[in-house]
Amino acid sequence: MTHTRLNPPGLHPGVAVAGQEAPDFELVNQFGEPVRLSELRGRNVVVVFYPFAFSGICTGELCEIRDNLGIFEHANATVLGVSVDSKFALRAYAEKEGYEFDLLADFWPHGEVAKKYGVFDPATGMSLRGTFIIDAAGIIRYVVVNPRGQARDLAEYREALSALGQA
Asked: Which residues contact 70 (CB under 8 A, 6 or more apart)?
């Protein structure tokens, strides 16, 4: 299954689309440890771009992932949360909310990975609310980009991950 949903359609030119190879990247997590996407081959990866740590909708979305981490583990999927925050802010955020998945700092050069995926908003200096589900071979299979203020639907992640298991 490949699925790209831009909400609203056409609003986000340049967004990486389902069916293409995922742009590789390396960012540090909340502990300062490097995480390289290509080193996760052999596992599915869910890359969740979110605007900022400690903001309301972002916290709600990431807490929903935290509370349903079994869905991702069952699908042999690694969750990577990505924002333009520093690793220091992300560490405090992860500790406060009890996140047991990596939060990656796309801090400097500012938003470079979000730019690769077409979800950086230069007018506000933040990532858009975009999710990319990448299969074990490194191919993007699911994309959703929601406008500011609209949370993503965990049920869609579950459906996309289930479809990967059937492929």
From this structure: none
What is the C-alpha to C-alpha distance for residues 116 and 119, in angstroms, rounded to an integer?
A: 8
Pairing of strands 26-29, 102-105: antiparallel
- Which segments within 19-163 are labelled E, that is strand? 26-29, 34-36, 44-49, 77-83, 102-105, 120-121, 126-127, 129-134, 140-146
The catalytic position among 22, 27, 48, 58 is 58
* Residue 58 a catalytic site member: yes
CA angle 16, 21, 27 (to 5 degrees): 75
- Residue range 69-103, pLDDT digits in tens: 999 999 999 999 999 999 999 999 999 999 999 99
What pTM value is reported for the model? 0.92
CA distance 117 to 33: 22
